[in-house]
Amino acid sequence: MDKATLEKKRLMDLRVYGRAVGVKSPSSLRKEDLIDKIIAIESGKLQPTKITRGRKLGEKLDLGDINIALSSPEEKYEINSQELYKLFSPLEKIKLYKINLIKLNQILESAADFLKKVTDSLKDC
Questions:
Q1: For 51-83, what is each residue's pLDDT tens digit?
Q2: Cα–Cα distance, 25 to 69 (Å, whole number)
Q3: Which ranges in 47-89 belong to alpha helices (H)?
Q4: Most buried residue among 36, 45, 117, 124 by CB atoms closer than 10 A?
């Protein structure tokens, strides 16, 4: 999403979107800083924040209905994508699907690494 489009969004909408893309503590940032972090994550200049506490990201990820469960150490949110997607254009929605797939890929890579470690340790036994 470009900067001009983000600047037109309300702060609360940006905070919801910021959580979805992986901005750390978006509710504590000013609008300009939040926009800069969103753009940095989308462009790949900044890594999204990994959630380490609360509900696991992959616990409620239904690609059919695209319901996303996210949590941060400070606050817990459940984002219903139907409500979220009403705020964005079709092109922006495609970018959100891409972000969800990237996060799902990260979960699968972590699971694959874990399984590799387990199988390696079992070979040593």
A1: 665 555 444 444 444 444 444 444 444 556 566
A2: 16
A3: 81-85
A4: 36
